[in-house]
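Tokens in:
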């Protein structure tokens, strides 16, 4: 996600600025601070930092954090783990012609609820899923797996599928023969 995209998101949030959760008035001012927070435990414990908005009510002086601060801290955790942020995961469906979550789940065979949790930042995808998601940021890869899924749906017992199974069987036989020869040679040399 580019800096420009993020600025748009931030100003969107800013437009419907929250009212004070204590006195429910609208006079909220925002101060951006560099927030440092611990992440992980024991030998994996690190200190991360994120620039987050702190809201302050001009009426009663109450200070609070909202979902925007939470999202920015979540992003810092994703960067630390080296995985895509939830907004980057959300961007995959948007870039590919605004696919519905159900359609995206059908094509990728991922669980629809899981995709939702990744997109909302409730759950961070593991490294293997993150590699898959990264490949899906290239729309042509989504086209490839969609064609694969649709071919199977049209004809689940197609010859292509059977031929694929035989090919695997042949390779396995070949590998077994090679493995036998390898062991015999080793024993003979000893
Ligand atoms: Zn207040």
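Residues out:
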């Amino acid at each position: 996600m580019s800096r420009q995209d993020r600025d748009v998101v931030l100003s969107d949030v800013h437009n419907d600025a929250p009212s004070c959760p204590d006195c429910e008035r609208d006079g909220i001012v925002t101060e951006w601070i560099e927030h440092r927070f611990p992440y992980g435990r024991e030998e994996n414990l690190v200190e991360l930092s994120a620039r987050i908005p702190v809201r302050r009510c001009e009426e009663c002086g109450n200070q609070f954090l909202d979902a925007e601060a939470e999202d920015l801290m979540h992003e810092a955790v994703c960067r630390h783990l080296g995985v895509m942020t939830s907004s980057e995961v959300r961007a995959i469906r948007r870039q590919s012609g605004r696919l519905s979550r159900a359609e995206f789940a059908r094509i990728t065979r991922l669980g629809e609820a899981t995709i939702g949790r990744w997109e909302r930042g409730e759950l961070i995808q593991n490294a293997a899923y993150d590699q898959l998601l990264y490949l899906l940021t290239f729309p042509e890869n989504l086209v490839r797996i969609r064609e694969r899924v649709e071919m199977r749906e049209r004809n689940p017992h197609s010859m292509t599928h059977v031929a694929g199974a035989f090919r695997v069987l042949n390779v396995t036989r070949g590998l077994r023969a090679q493995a036998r020869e390898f062991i015999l040679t080793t024993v003979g040399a000893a």
